[in-house]
Amino acid sequence: MTRIIGLDPGMSKTGWAIIDMDERSNIEFLGSGTISTGNKLGMGERLHVIFEQLKKVISLYSPSEAAIEKIFVNKNPKSSLTLGYARGIVILVLEITELTMNEYDTNYIKKSITGNGHADKDQVIFMVKQIIKNLNIKCHHAADALAVAICHVYTKSSYFVR
After folding, report:
1. Which of 65, 69, 144, 152 is catalytic?
2. What is the pLDDT of residues 49-71, one digit of tens each?
3. Is 28 a catalytic residue?
4. Catalytically annotated residue among 65, 140, 141, 152
């Protein structure tokens, strides 16, 4: 059994999801959530919240592998820079906790989940709910993190060819 944490980094909200994959690449959903940082906190405080909360999630679930969405360049350079800070903290936590990190492009994740590399968020959430039955996930950040984890399973098990 392989336990995987999927991550969708963001400064305001960092989504996470935990799944188990057995030797036949069957997926079992274990949990998901969002690490939220308040807009009133300073940059350093917000990064510290992400750092501490993600360490707690990893400690609680003990994943053996991590899958993370690669950064994309926003039209707004400030947003891209802020996203980079959050992603850097997530990568630091993965390094400190000695988790193997696997990175995937947004379009690759969407294509592996929906068959369309330019699918919108609603399509991704719909397909994630088809893959994981009886899933009650409301936040798109957690759904995106789950999509990253599922993409990792598909890539590892060669279900999806790049």
Report:
1. 69
2. 999 999 999 999 999 999 998 87
3. no
4. 141
